[in-house]
Amino acid sequence: xxxxxxxxxxxxxxxxxxxxxxxxxxxxxxxxxxxxxxxxxxxxxxxxxxxxxxxxxxxxxxxxxxxxxxxxxxxxxxxxxxxxxxxxxxxxxxxxxxxxxxxxxxxxxxxxxxxxxxxxxxxxxxxxxxxxxxxxxxxxxxxxxxxxxxxxxxxxxxxxxxxxxxxxxxxxxxxxxxxxxxxxxxxxxxxxxxxxxxxxxxxxxxxxxxxxxxxxxxxxxxxxxxxxxxxxxxxxxxxxxxxxxxxxxxxxxxxxxxxxxxxxxxxxxxxxxxx
Length: 275
Fold this sequence. Notes:
Layout: E1 5-10, H1 19-24, E2 29-36, E3 50-51, H2 55-65, E4 68-74, H3 80-94, E5 101-108, H4 120-136, E6 141-146, H5 147-153, E7 163-167, E8 184-190, E9 204-208, H6 227-237, H7 245-251, H8 261-274
Parallel strand pairs: 1-2, 2-4, 4-5, 5-6, 6-7, 7-8
Antiparallel strand pairs: 1-9, 2-3, 8-9
């Protein structure tokens, strides 16, 4: 994996963060908690969604210093009806900050008490409901959880189009090699023991293997998608030019995992529509 970007994920539990110090320490991205279906102190089955009390402060301040921002929602729904309402609440919480969100919106589903192991199809439907609404609203969804939960409670074969943010903590702690797990594009590798300037308590540390903040089609990384990018892709498809792994991610316009003539046509349409 040639792309390796360091990030953190934060919530109210990290208190007041000095985001300039975080940025200066080399942190590229932050996954910021936006919301939750109900408090974990409430009975299972309750629907009482809320916005994380530090969400607004965190996303505004992180964005202003140059950190690439994603968000995450902690899922507590236990029925399809609740999943519909909870996903709508997530969108209502984040839409006013859409211009600041360049990394994915994570569907954080990790609590077995909210998901019946014998109802894997329903649990998977919860994820699909969130993902489709996020896509329709112009966000990139990603599924967050740990390995055993995903294997036992979720039908990953039905979610092959959704990237995975995987929580795996090794002992002793390490950041490479990365875990080999389905379509994992982000790895939460520790929740403690790493000092991040600007944060006075433990914080989850992550590595992203895809730069979601880059513009699809911008193959020369000049901030503009234009005929120069189309020429680069055409030369690659005709065998006269090689793309780096990062460029291939940007050239996969339709996100089907392949760089081919369909992407070239999509890129040409994108350029023409911008004229």
